[in-house]
Amino acid sequence: MPGSDRPPCWALALVLAAALWTWWPAGLTFRSDDYIALHWVQDWDHVLGDFVGPQYGLERLALFHRPLVTLSIAVDALLGGNGPLWPLCANLLVHLANAVLVWLLLRRLASPLAALAATAFWLLHPNHLEAVSWVVGRVDTHATLFALLAVELDLRRREGRLRSLVPALAAFVLGCWTKESCLVVPGVLALLWLVREPGSVAARIVVALERLRPYAAALLGVLLLRLAFLGEVVGGYEAQVLDPRPALRFWTALLPSGAGTPATVLAALALVAAAVLARRRWRLVLALVVAAVLLALPAAGAGGGVEPRYGYLMTVALAGALAVAGPVPALLLLGAWAGVGLDGRAELRRTCAEVVRLRDAALARVDATDRDPVLVEAPSRVGRFRAFPVGVDRLGVPPFHDGHRRVLPDRPFFEAVPEQRTPPPVGRLATVYAGPDRLDHDMLVQLAEAWANGDSFTALRLEGLRPHDYAVWVLGMQGWFRVRVPALPNGSIELGTVLRTPLEGLPRGRPPLVFDLWPSVDAGLDPEPALWLEAFDADGRSLGASERPLLLPLTRDLPTWFSKKRPGLLWLLIPLAFSLPLRLRTRRRRGGPSGSERAREAGATPGPS
Q1: Residue 345 forms beta bridges with which residues?
Q2: How far is C-alpha 418 from the chain's CA centre?
Q3: Which of 94, 160, 253, 488 is least surrounded by CB atoms within 10 angstroms?
Q4: What phi-psi label fits residue 382: left (phi over 0), alpha (psi between -120 and 50 degrees) or beta?
Q5: Chain-centre distance of CA 368, in angstroms?
Q6: What is the pLDDT of residue 564?
Q7: What is 264-311 written as a DSSP string?
């Protein structure tokens, strides 16, 4: 076997030390979702609740079951005192542990030097920047730890170095409780079995199906639990639709973008060298490429497949394909990506310094004003990195602030639309709301029915005016939206009309405001959005604006038309299909030895293709 030589442990230690110095989180801080996660884990009832429900209690915006991520952040908050250094160091330690597992796996497929070079390429890859240097990026680092551990333990079981398959199955289930990318681990194992087992293709397939039985049972259990806890088998982002095409772009992890001509030429030479050097082991390379596509599938959709971080686990398979070709291609690609990595780390540190400045300024503004809500400067991104796309509304509560203040970002959600960039004006008029004190599920359904029948029992207006129309700003945790609504003869506007009006300046046919509103209602610290009104006459002149915002009394108990659930029962067909090996194995035992038994009788030893 290529990996039978004594591995260069001292060289691996040097690579890990270089990675520790490269990835050390000096100057990094919390960003974006980190604020949501850290605020959530202050209550251990929330931490335990994530084991039997959607993560962070979200039911629409991000329907995930990732209890081990929540638990790990809670533990890190206890150890690190709610500061960023320890959780980021924990990410780094897991990243280094993953590198050791990558090396252990690759040395089975290639020479020690080639395995080490491919491991170094994976360990230092710039696409892993967000996974390692962003606290909630651990959904990728930690899930990959369990996925690689499951593969390593399974291979050790097949090699006779481990007596039980239970540890591998346990690692697989724990990975599925960390991120959905681990759902495809049985498929990756099947590919490894197909290329490492002796015998004909048919015999290999029979062996793979036999071995998939326990993983199929574990997968079925995971999917049924997800169905029970989420109401769906797969879950995911609300706007995401499963689309395998983004997964076919796996090769982008090999070619550095924006790195200049020398790096591109170096990457091209590396790929040509890999193709030439691996030609005699093309079956193994093909299996690893298919494994890369399979590992990319869980994030492939309208809401995924574009973040470089999503390729964290997938790139392991590509590193394996490079290792098969020897150390030269991996080292060439490592050099091609070096400039991208250095630039990315420098930019991230500048971003974090700006995030710290903006956060301190926001907290100072919270202390300096009695307005509710407090609008603070909080850009969605700084450069190409996240800053405050979400989470800024948690800055007014513990552990970030001792009080309980409502904080919202002072920015338009659609920054590219001129009509949406206009900020809500601060006027002198009182905003009048004539409607129920609680807009819950039942009340919104009644409102929708009344609006459809031409009835009116909720109204908004500015005191003492009879304008031609109103501009209505709706502020939530993601910024503000703006609609323009004609006024009724009595000078008011119907709330149902406001919720069903498309946003101003956006293309025709776009869904109404209510579909842009619900993510903030679902994921915001407080579900009550703030409304500002400005009145205009028939000539478009302003007649006055709200002195203070009105807090619309929406609840999280929203009707189903706020969200489109997707049936996931079809995914149950996957483990049901895996149940076929049970019948195959039973028939083999009745009629003769299985494929693996015949191979052992022939004296063959498993090895790489």
Answers
A1: none
A2: 30
A3: 160
A4: beta
A5: 36
A6: 47
A7: HHHHHHHHHHHHHHTGGGHHHHHHHHHHHHHHHGGG-BTTBS--GGGG
Angle (CA) 307-313-315 rounded to 5° is 80
Q: 386: which strand partners? A: 381
Residue 339 near residue 263, CB atoms below 8 Å: yes
- Per the structure block, which two tokens stand in for 339? 């400039």
Task: Kindly state the tokens that stand for 599.
Answer: 């191979």
How many CB atoms are located within 10 Å of the residue 27 CB?
12
How far does Cα 505 stand from its chain's mean position? 30
| Residue partners of 161: CB distance under 8 A and separation at least 6 | none
Helix axes 112-123, 9-23, angle to 10 degrees: 10
Q: Report the C-alpha gap between 588 and 597 in whole angstroms.
A: 10
- Contact assessment for residue 117 and residue 167, using Cβ atoms and an 8 Å cutoff: no
3-state SS, residue 552: coil
Question: Residue 477: what pLDDT?
Answer: 92
How far apart, in whole angstroms, are the C-alpha atoms of residue 513 and residue 478? 14
Whether this model's pTM surpasses 0.70: yes
- Blockwise average pLDDT, block size 10, the chain, 609 residues: 58 92 94 96 96 89 92 96 96 97 94 94 95 96 98 93 94 96 94 86 88 93 90 74 72 76 80 81 89 87 65 94 91 90 94 96 92 92 92 94 92 91 92 90 82 78 94 94 93 89 87 84 91 95 94 82 48 50 46 44 39
- What SS3 class is residue 23? helix
Residue 541 CB contacts under 8 Å (≥ 6 apart), including other chains: none
Sign of CA dihedral 165, 167, 170, 172: negative
Q: Report the distance separating Cα 520 and Cα 158, nearest Å.
A: 49
Q: Give me the residue label for tokens 């400067």.
A: 377
User: How high is the pLDDT of residue 300?
Assistant: 73
Q: Which pLDDT score is estimated for 5?
A: 47
Joined together, the tokens standing for residue 469 give: 């129309």
Distance separating alpha carbons of residues 172 and 165, to the nearest angstrom:
11
